[in-house]
Design brief:
- There is one protein chain.
- By secondary structure, this protein is α/β, with parallel strands linked by helices.
- It has 2 domains: 20-35 and 262-354, Alpha-Beta Complex (Aspartate Aminotransferase, domain 1); 60-259, Aspartate Aminotransferase, domain 2, CATH 3.40.640.10.
- Helices cover 34% and strands 17% of the residues.
- The chain is built from 11 helices and 13 strands.
- It has helices spanning 64-73, 88-98, 114-123, 140-150, 170-179, 191-194, 231-238, 248-259, 262-283, 307-316, 341-354; strands at 28-29, 80-85, 105-110, 126-131, 154-158, 183-187, 208-213, 225-230, 288-290, 297-302, 319-320, 322-323, 333-337.
- Helix 2 (88-98) crosses helix 3 (114-123), helix 9 packs parallel to helix 11 (341-354) and helix 10 crosses helix 11.
- It is globular and about 55 Å long.
- It binds 4'-deoxy-4'-aminopyridoxal-5'-phosphate (PMP).
- Residues 33, 87-89, 113, 158, 162, 187, 189, 213, 215, 220, 225 line the site of 4'-deoxy-4'-aminopyridoxal-5'-phosphate.
């Protein structure tokens, strides 16, 4: 029986789909770009029942302690500000909310991170994809053509890109920023692995914002993303933020992650080495085409077998990777997150078996 409230639901509700997360219980989890290593938090949870992070109080609405640490770490001056999100997903949503006007278009290269399109469309913004070249590099002339045609309010550029793993030309991106009237969001979710960043460029371009997250470097569970940009732009986006969106536990743990970060830097270095090793092992498999990655994941194409069959075989071996083989431009492609050495070896063994 249909619920009487259904008549009030938005008209497009039947066409919307929830973001499905596969149940990964008991599996080797190589699907979501998490850090496979243990954290060295070195703090007591009881520290959360007293002082500024007392759990019976609302959290610090402005995340002042974190803000101070990030200002120092990234040398953010007084003309620029920071906004925090419950993961960078929430920041993407806040940016879209701030530029929510019926005429406005959001633009992003394709393939790229699916949430740019999903969030834009759910909010009713127009969305345009601009295809990458066959090698997944940016098609600069096509991008500039579409920018001139649609005058996008927002352009999302993942640097490095997910799910392709590559880093686009900095020169091309600067040209895009120069030619855009709207805001250009450089999403550096994987910046720790590429070692490249646009953060210092915010001093030169008032329409540039930089988004980062703790999710890929070991803290996916606390959901913390942050966005840097020019004061008035960040302050306007901040008007759309719900109060207290970053809870006390997340603030406390992210605070500590910036104090005690040597081991995180070591883990990142190890993950880069493991990614290089995994890439080389995969390149030795003849039925697989491997794409170079500047991230903690590797995109690969299955050459003469169905990627769905390979994915399902891996599931039968208790290994969960990401099946993106039905996404436009990624036909028969799969994406594996870099795990521990042992997890990667098990993945390689099973991948080889799946291709026999
Ligand atoms: N940007 C990119 C490019 C991503 O791949 C992801 C996560 N897959 C996100 C943003 C969102 O990250 P989070 O919400 O965990 O900060």
């Amino acid at each position: 029986m249909s619920n009487k409230v259904n008549n009030f639901l938005r008209d497009d509700i039947d066409s919307l789909k929830e973001y499905k997360i596969v149940d990964s219980k008991g599996m080797i989890k190589l699907d979501a770009m998490e850090n496979p290593f243990d954290l060295d938090l070195n703090f007591e949870i009881t520290g959360l029942s007293s002082g500024s992070s007392n759990l019976n109080r609302y959290p610090d609405a402005n995340c002042e302690s974190l803000r101070k640490k990030l200002r120092a770490k990234y040398k953010i001056g007084k003309d620029h500000n920071i906004i925090f999100g419950n993961g960078s997903d929430e920041l993407i949503q806040l940016i879209c909310l701030a530029f929510l006007k019926s005429k406005n278009t959001v633009l992003a290269p394709s393939p790229s991170f699916s949430m740019y399109e999903k969030i834009s469309r759910v909010l009713g913004l127009k969305f345009k994809n601009v295809s990458l070249k066959n090698d997944f590099s940016l098609d600069l002339s096509l991008m500039l053509k579409k920018i001139a045609e649609f005058n996008p309010a927002i352009i999302f550029l993942a640097y490095p890109n997910n799910p392709t793993g590559n880093l686009w030309s900095k020169k091309d991106i600067l040209e895009i920023i120069n030619k855009s009237n709207g805001v250009v969001v450089i999403d550096e979710a994987y910046g720790a692995f590429s070692g490249q960043s646009f953060v210092t460029e915010i001093n030169k371009y008032e329409n540039l914002v930089i988004m980062k997250t703790l999710s890929k470097i070991g803290f996916a569970g606390i959901r913390l993303g942050y966005l840097f940009g020019e004061n008035s732009l960040i302050n306007n986006i901040n008007k759309l933020r719900l109060p207290f969106n970053i809870n006390s536990v997340s603030q406390k743990i992210s605070d500590l992650s910036f104090e005690n970060n040597e081991y995180i830097d070591e883990q990142i270095k190890d993950l880069i080495k493991l990614k290089d090793k995994l890439t080389n092992q995969m390149k030795d498999i003849s039925k697989v085409k491997v794409y170079e990655s500047k991230t903690n994941f590797v995109l690969f194409k299955i050459l003469d077998k169905s990627a769905n069959d390979v994915f399902n075989y891996l599931i039968s071996c208790n290994i969960l990777i990401k099946n993106i083989s039905s996404s436009p431009g990624l036909e028969n492609c799969l994406r594996v997150t870099v795990g521990s050495e042992q997890e990667n070896n098990l993945f390689i063994q099973s991948l080889k078996k799946s291709l026999i």
